[in-house]
Amino acid sequence: MGQFSKIRLPQGQAWRGAVIVVVVLVLLVGTLIALNLTLTGTGRLKDLASVIQSVVTAFALIVGGIFAAYKWQVFREAEPHLTIDNKVSHRRIGDGYVHIAVTATLHNSSKVKMEFREAFFLLQQISPVSDEEIERLYDQAYTGEEQGDLQWPTLDETLRTWRDNELIVEPGESHQEIWEFIVSKDVESVMIYTYFYNSRLPQVPQGWGATTVLDIVTRG
């Protein structure tokens, strides 16, 4: 049994699969009994064999479909799923700067543990920007057949790495990581992008991200 002893079909799917198998078995037995009572002569064995072959084929197809659905569900349960929630706060520091704190909450909503070895936070300025810069950004993103993202000016980018087994989020659990930025008080709006790489695919840049927009309001 090993590791597969812990794997179960969803309740509804398992129930439907069991019902189908039982119904097919009942039909098979009933058909054989009926043929045994009604068929006579030399063609009896041929007819009976033909029916048995058809029923067995249908039964094999149904069981194969149930097994395929089972395997599909197993593979889905083995896939990691992550939700990132960014909480952003800011405050005035000194005479000319603003401190921005970003708390990224990682929630593992899958049934497998998730390990992270690399992530980055990107801070971009949305306002103030000149009209000329806005038009340039718009042309870059929306001119042509394929539409892309607006590439706002980057204020800061922070990369963070972890050693093996240093950052692991178990199934159903959450973990928080905090990033800090300092910007000029002249910055009015920023966009913060959080991205955690999937350590299961180190050769492919895949992972999970979250984007948050902050309007900075300073007092005093």
Question: What is the structure about, briefly put?
Answer:
This protein is α+β, with helices and mostly antiparallel strands and 220 residues long. Helix content is 34%, strand content 34%.
Output the keywords:
220 residues, 34% strand, disordered N terminus, elongated, four-stranded antiparallel beta sheet, alpha+beta, three-stranded antiparallel beta sheet
Q: Can you tell me about this structure?
A:
The chain is of the alpha+beta class and 220 residues long. Helices cover 34% and strands 34% of the residues. The protein contains 3 helices and 9 strands. Strand 1 (82-93) and strand 2 form a beta hairpin. Helix 1 runs antiparallel to helix 2. It starts with 10 loop residues before the first helix and ends in a 5-residue tail after the last strand.
Structural class: alpha+beta
Strand percent estimate: 25-35%
Round the Cα radius of gyration to an integer and report it.
30 Å
Low-pLDDT sequence parts: 1-13
The total beta strand count reads 9
Describe the largest sheet: 4 strands, antiparallel
**Based on the structure, what is the oligomeric state of the protein chains?**
single chain
- Principal-axis shape equals elongated
> Order of helices and strands, N to C?
HHEEEEHEEEEE
Largest beta sheet: strand ordering: 5-4-8-9
Distance between the termini: 68 Å
Give the averaged pLDDT, no decimals: 79
| Tally of alpha and pi helices | 3
